[in-house]
Specification:
The chain is mostly helical. Helices cover about 70% and strands about 0% of the residues. The chain has two domains: about 80 residues, Rna Polymerase Sigma Factor, Chain: A, CATH 1.10.1740.10; about 90 residues, Arc Repressor Mutant, subunit A. It contains eight helices and no strands. Helix 4 crosses helix 7 and helix 5 packs across helix 7.
Length: about 180
């Protein structure tokens, strides 16, 4: 009887360690995907719930970070299909520089809330798949191949979504230098 309880405690302890180490980064990724801190919290909670339910089977996976990131992105995409009502597009994005696009999201850097709001508004106009690809490629710093594997699409699809997403951002951000901002994203 004690053996089962001990294994359960060890499993829960390992999950707890994984959660504490990853929750902050996944929360930032979720926020970039959805642009809403409350929804980001819900997405992260759903992702970790799904991970916990599979924890006994998957905890030894070599690429557990990629696995939970895949759960998060798929949960986001699934939620977007069901809940387009949560997006409230704006007619015009305020005009300002984007020297530090993502500065301050869990990095401690203070690069201007206005710049982050402008970027988030621009990301909000992207279709969910394009937004997911851009966040994975430039925020999570995944390669084309890693992004394709995580989303279970071809590398060509990732390249297409990246190209189209950046083109849409260029339109919505006007004359701002999107290419220079990519490095900061």
């Amino acid at each position: 009887m004690g053996g089962h309880a001990g294994r359960g405690h060890a499993r829960d302890s390992a999950f707890r360690e994984f959660y504490v180490a990853r929750v902050s980064g996944l929360r930032a990724t979720a926020y970039l995907l959805c642009g809403d801190w409350h929804l980001a919290e819900d997405l992260v909670q759903a992702a970790f719930t799904k991970l916990y339910l599979a924890w006994q089977r998957v905890q030894a996976y070599e690429h557990l970070d990629q696995y939970v990131r895949r759960i998060l992105v798929r949960t986001f995409l699934s939620e977007r299909r069901r809940a387009s009502r949560r997006e409230h597009p704006v007619d015009q994005v305020p005009d300002a520089g984007l020297s530090g696009w993502m500065g301050g999201l869990d990095t401690g850097a203070d690069r201007g809330a206005e710049e982050r709001l402008i970027l988030l508004a621009a990301l909000a106009v992207l279709p969910p798949r394009q937004r997911a690809v851009l966040v994975l490629r430039f925020w999570e710093d995944l390669s084309v191949g890693q992004t394709a594997e995580l989303l279970r699409v071809s590398t060509g699809s990732v390249k297409t979504h990246t190209s189209r997403g950046l083109a849409t951002l260029r339109v919505h951000l006007g004359d701002l230098n999107v290419l220079a901002a990519e490095a900061a994203l």
